[in-house]
Description:
Elements: H1 14-23, H2 28-37, H3 44-51, H4 59-69
Helix pairs in contact: 2-3
Amino acid sequence: MKITKYNNFKNISGNKLKVLRKNAKMSQQDLAEKLQLEGIDLTSKEISKIENNNRLVQDFELFAFAKIFKVSADEFNVEQ
């Protein structure tokens, strides 16, 4: 069975991503550019969809977010 939602969200990491990005005073475009340096091709529009829980996050994207913000991938666990 393929799961596409968890507690009515398409991802559980979008809110944390938004907080980390804003705390770093980074725009969605800035984050997209940093992701490209890591080999991840996401647009600012896709980042917006992630932050608003309208797009699933791939595991490799999550690890790239963690690397950019210098946090553990566990930081994105909404239940912590």
